[in-house]
C-alpha cells in the first residue's frame, strides 16, 4: 500500500471596507471579509465524508472519504487544523501504486483549484507529493544528461586544445566567475590543477549554454585574423572569392558550430537545451513540477541525451583518431627532419673530409713534384751514360775471359 500526501495552508483574503472605516483609520486599514469555512468548501467539492472525527481537539477535524477516481477506489483523509484565522489542510491518499496515488492527488488538487475557494483564500501548497514524484522521475535523467554533457565537453575541449582547454576558449569574465566558484588553494600550480579537474563541474547550466552558443573568436582565431589583416592591409586588392573565404573563415562562431555541429546535425539542439535549462531549476530545487512540465522536459532530455551520447561516440571514433594521426604525422615529420639533418651532417662531414683529403693530396703531390724535380736536377745524366758504357765493356770482357782456355 502506497501513502502520499499534499499539504495546504489557506490564508483568508482581506479587503478595505469603506463603510466601517472610522475617522481614526488610515488608508491602510484592513477589514476581514466574510467567507465560507474551508470545511464547507471541502464538503461542497467532495460531498459528505463517510467519517468525521474531531479527536477531542476543538481546532482539528478529520474527514475520511472513499473516492472512485478513474475507476479506481482510494481512501482519502482530509485533516483540517483551524488556527486563529488560518486553516491548515493535509490530504492523505492510500492506493496500490505510486502512480495511482499521484494521479488521485492530481485529481483532488485540480478539483480544489477548480472551485471558487481562492476567491476567499490565498492557497499555499506547503508539501507537494505530485511535484516530488515528477521531480524524482526527472532528476535521474537530468543527472545522466549533465554528466554525459560534461564528458562530451571535457573530451572535445581537451583533445582540441589540450591543457589550455578553457583558457583558449572561455571568455575572461566567465573564467573569473568559475575560478571564484572553484576557490582552488595552494600555489599557482596546485590551483591550475584543481581548475583543470573541476572547471566544467563548476559551471551553471546557463554558463554551459552561453559557452556553447555564444558567437565569439577564440584566442587562436584572433591571432589568425590579426595576421591576415596585417598581410592584407588593402582588402580592396583581394578578389571577391578571397574576401568571401576570409569572411567565412574569420566570422565569429559558437563553440557548438566550431566543435560539435559535424557530430550533432539537429537544428533543435539549442531549443532542447533551453527547455532543460528552464525546468532544471524547478527539479533541482524541489519546486512545482507537474505532469505537463514533466512530459515536455522528458522529451527534450531524452532526445538531447541521445544526441550527446552520439556526439561522444563520434568524438572518440573520429576526433581521437584524427588527433592521433595528426600527432603521428608530426612525429614522423620530426623524425624525417632529424634524419634529413643527420644526412646533411654526414654529407657535409664527408664532403669536408674529402676536401681536406684533396687539399692534403694536392700538397703531397706538389711536394713530391718539387722534390723529384730537385733530385732530377742534381743528377749528371752524361756521367750516368759513361758509367753505363763502362759497365757494359766490363761485362763483355768477363764473357771473353770465360770462353778462352787457360
Shape: elongated
Kindly report the oligomeric state of this protein: single chain
Helix content: 55-70%
Number of helices: 12
Strand order of the largest sheet: 4-5-6-7-1-8
Give the end-to-end Cα distance, rounded to a whole number of Å.
Answer: 161 Å
Q: Unreliable stretches, pLDDT < 50, 5 or more residues? A: 17-33
Structural class: alpha+beta
- What Rg is obtained from the alpha carbons, in whole angstroms? 49 Å
Number of strands: 8
Percentage of residues in strands: 5-15%
The profile of the biggest β sheet is:
6 strands, antiparallel
Average pLDDT score: 79
Helices and strands, in order, run as: EEEHEEEEHEHHHHHHHHHH
How would you characterize the overall build of this protein?
By secondary structure, the chain is α+β, with helices and mostly antiparallel strands. Helix content is 61%, strand content 14%. The chain has twelve helices and eight strands. It has helices spanning 38-46, 98-114, 129-161, 172-182, 188-198, 205-213, 219-231, 240-250, 255-260, 269-284, 291-377, 381-403; strands at 2-12, 14-15, 31-32, 51-53, 60-69, 72-83, 86-95, 121-128. It has a six-stranded antiparallel beta sheet with strand order 4-5-6-7-1-8. It has a two-stranded antiparallel sheet with strand order 2-3. Strand 4 and strand 5 (60-69) form a beta hairpin. It is elongated.
Primary descriptors:
single chain, 406 residues, alpha+beta, six-stranded antiparallel β-sheet, two-stranded antiparallel ribbon, 12 helices
Amino acid at each position: 500500500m502506497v501513502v502520499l500526501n499534499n499539504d495546504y495552508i489557506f490564508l483568508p483574503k482581506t479587503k478595505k471596507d469603506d463603510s466601517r472605516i472610522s475617522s481614526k483609520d488610515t488608508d491602510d486599514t484592513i477589514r476581514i471579509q466574510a467567507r465560507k469555512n474551508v470545511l464547507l468548501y471541502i464538503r461542497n467539492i467532495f460531498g459528505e465524508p463517510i467519517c468525521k472525527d474531531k479527536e477531542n481537539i476543538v481546532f482539528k477535524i478529520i474527514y475520511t472519504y472513499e473516492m472512485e477516481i478513474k475507476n479506481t477506489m482510494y481512501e482519502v483523509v482530509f485533516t483540517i487544523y483551524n488556527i486563529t484565522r488560518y486553516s491548515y489542510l493535509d490530504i492523505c491518499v492510500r492506493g496500490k501504486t505510486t502512480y495511482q496515488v499521484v494521479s488521485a492527488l492530481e485529481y483532488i488538487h485540480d478539483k480544489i483549484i477548480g472551485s471558487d475557494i481562492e476567491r476567499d483564500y490565498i492557497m499555499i501548497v506547503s508539501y507537494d507529493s505530485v511535484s516530488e514524484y515528477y521531480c524524482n522521475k526527472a532528476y535521474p535523467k537530468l543527472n545522466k544528461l549533465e554528466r554525459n554533457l560534461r564528458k562530451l565537453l571535457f573530451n572535445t575541449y581537451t583533445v582540441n586544445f589540450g591543457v589550455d582547454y578553457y583558457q583558449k576558449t572561455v571568455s575572461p569574465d566567465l573564467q573569473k566567475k568559475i575560478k571564484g566558484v572553484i576557490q582552488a588553494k595552494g600555489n599557482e600550480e596546485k590551483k591550475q590543477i584543481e581548475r583543470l579537474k573541476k572547471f566544467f563541474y563548476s559551471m551553471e547550466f546557463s554558463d554551459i549554454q552561453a559557452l556553447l552558443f555564444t558567437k565569439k573568436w577564440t584566442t587562436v582565431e584572433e591571432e589568425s585574423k590579426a595576421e591576415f589583416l596585417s598581410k592584407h592591409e588593402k582588402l580592396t586588392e583581394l578578389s571577391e572569392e578571397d574576401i568571401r573565404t576570409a569572411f567565412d573563415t574569420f566570422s565569429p562562431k559558437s563553440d557548438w558550430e566550431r566543435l560539435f555541429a559535424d557530430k550533432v546535425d539537429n537544428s533543435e539542439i539549442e531549443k532542447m537545451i533551453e527547455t532543460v535549462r528552464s525546468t532544471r531549476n524547478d527539479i533541482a530545487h524541489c519546486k512545482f513540477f507537474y505532469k505537463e512540465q514533466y512530459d515536455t522536459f522528458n522529451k527534450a532530455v531524452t532526445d538531447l541525451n541521445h544526441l550527446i551520447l552520439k556526439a561522444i561516440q563520434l568524438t572518440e571514433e573520429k576526433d581521437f583518431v584524427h588527433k592521433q594521426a595528426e600527432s603521428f604525422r608530426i612525429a614522423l615529420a620530426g623524425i624525417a627532419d632529424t634524419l634529413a639533418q643527420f644526412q646533411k651532417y654526414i654529407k657535409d662531414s664527408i664532403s669536408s673530409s674529402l676536401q681536406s683529403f684533396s687539399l692534403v693530396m694536392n700538397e703531397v703531390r706538389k711536394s713530391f713534384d718539387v722534390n723529384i724535380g730537385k733530385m732530377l736536377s742534381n743528377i749528371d745524366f752524361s756521367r750516368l751514360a759513361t758509367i753505363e758504357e763502362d759497365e757494359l765493356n766490363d761485362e763483355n770482357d768477363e764473357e771473353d775471359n770465360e770462353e778462352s782456355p787457360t
